[in-house]
Every structure is written in structure tokens, then in C-alpha cells.
Amino acid sequence: MNSSPPATRRTPSDRRKQLPEEVAAYVRELVITGEVKAGDFLRMEPIAEAVGVSNTPVREGLLLLQSEGFVQLVPRRGFIVAPFTPGDVQDLFWAQARLGGELAARAAKRITPEAIARLEANIEEYERAAEAGDTRSLAELGHLFHRELNLAAGSRRLALLLGTVVKQLPNQFYATIEGQVDNARSEHPLLLDALKNGDTRKARSVFEKHIQGSAARLIETLEKRGMWAEEQQAS
Prior knowledge:
This protein has 235 residues and is mainly alpha-helical. It has helices at residues 12-32, 44-51, 55-68, 86-110, 113-132, 135-153, 156-166, 180-196, 200-224, 229-234, and strands at residues 71-74, 78-81. A two-stranded antiparallel sheet has the order 1-2.
């Protein structure tokens, strides 16, 4: 007898709630990767076509991004990209490092052998994906590693707070940042060792170093792309 729970059917209303989030995720990636720059107007039609939605969820998604500070609404003209500075990058990663570091420390106290086994399997899969140059799998596996770690902490509210920060950071773009994959390959195993040994201090410090290093690499990558070239020339 199949004892697995029945699959949850997604209703049209559920799907409608997700559409603005899909738009917001798409535009966030454009902003954080430097594909669009401060002051650029965001036309709804190209965004709707890229995401595969109508203009209504595009507007709702852009309003979400306005509340996060990624875009600004200019009356009678539309949405423009808000300034996004190296300091903004550092602040986002600082928040992730502190919240995630606390979760890592808590996970070291209570992680189960089953969760350890899943993290070990994840690291092995990450190695194979890195050898194959599979950036899409690398991004997904990196996300799953951190998700498993957060769940192991058993602190739902803190994990939700972390989620509000992490969604503002790049996803697919991560694996293309120079040095990012090598960093994960070396530091995920170190973090796993700390979890196995129940070493809360090391778990926290390794996690914070891991995330802060990502901030520095992202800023360097965006500088090479010329994201802040105009601001630097003006100063």
C-alpha cells in the first residue's frame, strides 16, 4: 500500500499568487547581475514575454521590488531601476552571514545522522557537477545544501527571516562568479565536519566566512562588468 501523502493540487488562485514572485525573481536577477542599471526604465511588455505572463502580474511583481528597494515608480512614466551599490551587496550578504551563521551553530547541536548523510550526498553531487561544468545543477545543489542546513537548525522563524534576505540575492548567476564554485567545494566539507563534530563555534565561523567571501567575489564580478563604472568616473 502506498503510504505517501497525496500530491497537493495547485489551484488557479495559488498560481496567480506565484506569478508576481516569478516576475520579481526575474527582474532581481537582471538588477543584481548588472543586466539593467540604475535609471533604466523597465518596460512591462518585454518582461511579460520573458516570464510568460500578462502585464498584470508584471506590475504586481515590480511593486514587490519597489518595497524591497530594487525599483522606483516614477508617476506617469513607469518603473525604473533603483541605485544598487557595493554597500547594498555587502549589507545583504552581512545579513545572510549573521542569520545563517546562527542557524549553522544551532544545526551543529541537533543535526541528525540522516541529515548528515544528505549533506554528504549533496557534496558528492556538487563535485560531479563541478567537474562537468554544469552551472545549473551547481546553483540548485548549492541552494539545497543551505536549505538542508537551515532545516537541521530547527528554527523555523529564523529560517523564514533568512529567506527574506536570500531571495534578494542572485541564484543562477552564483555558479558563474569567478571562484564561487571552488569556494563551495572547499568550505561545504569544512562546514559538514563542524556539524558532525557538534562544533557550534566552527560551524558559525565557517559559514560566515563562506558567505562574506561570496559578497567580495560578487562585487568584483560586477565591477568587471562595468556595473558602477559611471559612478566611479563621476567621483
